[in-house]
Amino acid sequence: MEKKKLTIGVTGLNNIDSPGPGVPVIRGIKDSGLDVRIIGLAYENLEPGIYMPGLVDKTYLMPFPSSGSEAFLERLDYINEKEQLDIIIPNFDSELYLFIKFSGKLLEMGIHTFLPSLEQFEERHKDNLPEFAEKYHITVPESKALMNSDELANLPKPLSYPYYIKGKFYEAFKVSNHNQALYYFNKLSAKWGFPVIVQQAIHGTEVNVIALGDGEGNTVAAVAMRKQYITDKGKAWGGITISDERLLEITHNIIKETKWRGGMELEMIKTDDGEYHLIEINPRIPAWVYLAVGAGQNIPEMLCRLAMGEKVKPVTEYESGKMFIRYSWDLIGDIADFEKIIIFGEL
Amino acid sequence: MSKLNSLAISDNGFIFKPSTGESFTTNEMGLFIIQLLKENKSGEEIINAIMEDFEVDKITAGRDLYEYLDFLKREQMMD
Predict the structure, then answer these.
(1) CATH no. of A6-114+331-344
(2) What is the pLDDT of residues A211-257, one digit of tens each?
(3) Regarding the domain delimited by A142-200, which CATH topology (the fold level of the hierarchy) does it fall under?
(4) B6 in contact with A at a CB cutoff of 8 Å?
């Protein structure tokens, strides 16, 4: 890569109890040898990443993805005119469709991304997981995508309590009876739309992998982690890198078979019998990415290099036993900064 | 690498199992047994070593060893 200053737009600056990956992605990039200017792209006025000292050089508010592609492109065009973006790293599931769909248009504007194809993105959706598993020979828990709450009363065997009710994009709740199931079905469908997914609960330990595929079937980076502390939202508040050969082998196979392009997170349950059940594939870098950086694989840096067309040598080594522990921290801000974001949509 | 050799064990008796991320604590006796197991000592040799180092009789040493082996196997820390 030529030694020029890269201007990188990053979303997901909401570093709250269900944190977005933006802040750790930026930390990874800043730890690398890349000369960068970081542009925060925020959806809410109070995303902490906007105000964290030394994190972003400038932040722009973005229209919500639900506002449609016209507003999205118009805003990016405005930001790009001001900043001449080289790369954008989107970090929200709900915005990925737009970024993938318009990746060609973004490239015409000089903005590089490194994202899965629309086909890759669609086929690993929660509601497509059984088909995905069959195609790529992976074990997944029994699941069904529902469009109507009446279907809760007639779930196909062997689906039985307890099971998880999952929102289309985010959130999952374990339920043990019909009333609970109905309550969460309504809550999740109202928040994230349809379908709502029912997935059999599997007893075991949750283990996750963060990985980066080069789009040609090669796993450029992969780090496995076990959650040590899980919040009531199911988010890892502490975790530790593990050296699980089978888990990494499954990851390499999925990336090889799908020719995955970009960052991803595999969420799996390892049973006491040593079996692995895939419960979810997130088509982006997860919020615990900085653990991978700390363990020796700077995935945000590698993603930037791939986005700029550089060949990146796969990294297989990392240190097991590296831990992360999240914490909250009260930033003291100035009303003038908040005013700028509210009035001008940029800071 | 055997399961036992893959463990990260500190002198303080902290055991980290890299394959699962689990951690355990052990006492001086546990550390002593693990060390001898890693050196491929036989059960008889380990019992004799426990008798000598911890000044206990053969029945106590044997019980300590087999209880600890049960623990290691239960937690899948040895093959």
Answers:
(1) 3.40.50.20
(2) 999 999 999 999 999 999 888 777 889 999 999 999 999 999 999 99
(3) Dna Ligase; domain 1 (3.30.1490)
(4) yes
